[in-house]
Amino acid sequence: MRYLNQSTSKWLLAGLSLALPFSGIAQKKAATSKATTSANALSAIRESDVKSDLFALGGDHFRGREGGTLDELRASAWIAEQMRAIGAQPAGDDGTYFQFFHIQHTRITKASQISIGNHKLTHGQDAFVLAPSKATVNAPLVYVGTGTPADLAKVDVKGKAVAILFSGTGPADLSFRRYMTATMRDRSAELVKAGAVAVVYVSDARAQDLFEHWSTGYERGRYSLPGAATTKVVAQAPTIWLPTTDLAWVQQAGQQLVANIEVESFTYPSVNIVAKVPGTDAKLKNEYVLFSTHQDHDGVRKAIAGDSIWNGADDNATGCAGTLAVMRAFVKKPARRTGLFVFHGAEERGLLGSYYYSEKPTVPREAIVAVLNAEMIGRNAPDSAALLGSQRPHRNSADLVSLAMNANQAGPKFKLDTLWDKPTHPEGWYFRSDHLPYAKLGIPAICYTTLLHKDYHTPKDEPERINVAKLTNVTRWIYLTGWAVANRDQRPAPDKDFKLER
């Protein structure tokens, strides 16, 4: 790609146009604004700094930074120290860089018991209950093959536990993981409605791969902010997931499923890390351009190929390294508006940090003019990227999107993937990162991403696999957009008819 290896001086020349005021401003006023805003600090974004921060945060030292653990807190303290060293001011609670909040964790207790015939099963090891809910079951188990209509027509499922061999590949444009989880959920609901008291899925060959690599999420249970509706625990028919090696004995007739599943719920802390670089304009410095990212990942989990640390280098040490680099540029050359930098905790737990901060910001919420979110910005083709929130119904500010598109043309000239931002895309990627809570509140918000890859949420997402040059170029794109937002007279106008599809 043309701009990947060009010198910083050419980047600076390209960025000058972004500092110019937009339409509707008098010529004299435009000349004044140009004089005060054109000299951006793009040169402060150095690939060496980005790489250093990426490897520090995304390496084994912080053990995958799992939300709500000491590893996340240690990584957060490291980020705060980088903020201090860079020269950004604390903008958290009580004059610190930190805004602590609590996570509500609901999980199945270790005392819970599950057995089929004479086979005792342990949740989190050789079986997984898909949702943390109370259940007491003592019912005959009936095996219905792959659960086709013909299979089910032969069996009265009322009052029984139903065992199914998972099968199917799903649509070509949907990851098998999401197809499998949606299928398990929906078919279980149908069987329970028909009278089943439990559903047992046995993995086929493809589902077995996910059983081995992805099931740790079910082991951990459910997370939310305290008081959320999802913290409520109800009694319901359980869905249990087994490995393919259990199929031989699950098929045996005359077995009883006996389960006594109990749930526990408790709270513990996570944290947002917040800093600011005050603006230079007497009036506009009271408005904020929020640069958003998240510092947590999956932590230490089941070992795959001998590696138990799920580093999350792309998800999301890349976003953190990029945001620190943008901060350096704002410190070197402050803008008219204040730059606000928020590293959200517990994103992988359900965007908990961003939901908390958007509801309880440390600055006046009405003063946040835009949110620029960095989520996984260092993989895939070197000349491609995506901007979530750039098209309806996800777009909530055509004005902000225009600034971002101009910044891309002035800077890296990425080829932009538009498929992942469509409401029809099966991954629902727009709804899975920290810009979402702000967008729901009507704050102009966009998300920069280079999308999923085969190492997503596996121990293979390591710093060595990141394209640091590309990461640096996405960072420069974010900075140029933010610089434009922070320096023009008008704040980005929200779309008045913004309404998400769900």
UniProtKB/TrEMBL annotation:
Signal peptide limits: 1-26
Span of domain Peptidase M28: 272-478
A Pfam short name: Peptidase_M28
GO biological process terms on file: proteolysis
MF (Gene Ontology): metalloexopeptidase activity
Record key words, sorted: Signal
Entry keyword Cell membrane: no
Top-level division of the source organism's lineage: Bacteria
InterPro entries reported in the protein's UniProt record: M28_fam, PA_dom_sf, Peptidase_M28
The keyword ATP-binding is annotated on this UniProt entry: no
Name this protein carries in UniProt: Peptidase M28
Protein's organism: Hymenobacter crusticola
